[in-house]
């Protein structure tokens, strides 16, 4: 390559106006052994550049596959569900329902049942009032049975009289 | 995304990430740590990676941010400056020593540049990025990238010439 040419290129290079292809040309030029004395300093630069290009990263990189944490979280979730279940079970057992807790329909149903029960119980009481008569009969019967003792006594007395005759 | 897919995706630019980290952090170990961290971050977010249009540009931005953070943080005080050996077996020992020395100059000069210029020079001259790609990585406009690059190149050459001709003139 003509010296003239390379000097022009170098000027462009200094002004950062060269394309990559032109820079490759310059590098190729300075790769040769002999260069004019006044361009010696460029030679050093481009030698350095081509040396540095060959540097490589040789260290190993430990790439660990990411462990999936899903399984760990599933166990945590399971424990949480169990605890919640137990908690609600216990609270439900402890809870005593009052009439205030009932909804309107439930309250209606409750009242109706209570009315029916009341009716049944009044009828039952009426029936049991009549049982008083039976009671009376039974006491009379018992009285009658007591009187039978006199009849027995009378029997004994008559037997004695018959033996004596 | 399996591990093989990931490696395939990352392979083309992992060296670029490393070299950028190296440019900013200087120390080889620090740069390796940073690269490792970037790759692990990418791996951990592998589900999201597929949504990005340009994983490489994204990774370079991540690298830039991570390295600048590192430099700012206290960790930076523990930075070790280690230079690698540049070897070329075709040259005689005399020349090799000379070359090593002068190549070292270049890297020293580059270390003196401001961070942003370092990144731009790295991406353009070493990784052959187009200006629009650099602009994307650095989240700035193309013109600003060009200006910064030009400034950096001039600074490097000026210092290099000065050092090169030291003792001659």
TrEMBL record, chain A:
Source taxonomy: Bacteria, Pseudomonadati, Bacteroidota, Flavobacteriia, Flavobacteriales
Transmembrane segments: 70-88
Alphabetically ordered keywords of this record: Membrane, Transmembrane, Transmembrane helix
UniProt protein name: Uncharacterized protein
Naturally occurring in which organism (per UniProt): Gelidibacter gilvus
From TrEMBL, chain B:
Protein's UniProt keywords contain Transcription regulation: yes
InterPro entries registered for this protein in UniProt: RNA_pol_sigma-70-like, RNA_pol_sigma-70_dom, RNA_pol_sigma70_r2, RNA_pol_sigma70_r4_t2, RNA_pol_sigma_r2, RNA_pol_sigma_r3/r4-like, WH-like_DNA-bd_sf
All copies of domain RNA polymerase sigma factor 70 region 4 type, residue ranges: 106-155
Gene3D superfamilies the UniProt entry points to: 1.10.1740.10, Winged helix-like DNA-binding domain superfamily/Winged helix DNA-binding domain (1.10.10.10)
Pfam family, one: Sigma70_r4_2
Keywords: DNA-binding, Sigma factor, Transcription, Transcription regulation
Superkingdom field: Bacteria
Keyword Cell inner membrane: no
Gene Ontology molecular function, alphabetical: DNA binding; sigma factor activity
Domain RNA polymerase sigma-70 region per the UniProt entry, residue ranges: 10-75
Gene Ontology BP annotations: DNA-templated transcription initiation
Similarity remark: Belongs to the sigma-70 factor family. ECF subfamily.
Protein name stated in the entry: RNA polymerase sigma factor
Organism of derivation: Gelidibacter gilvus
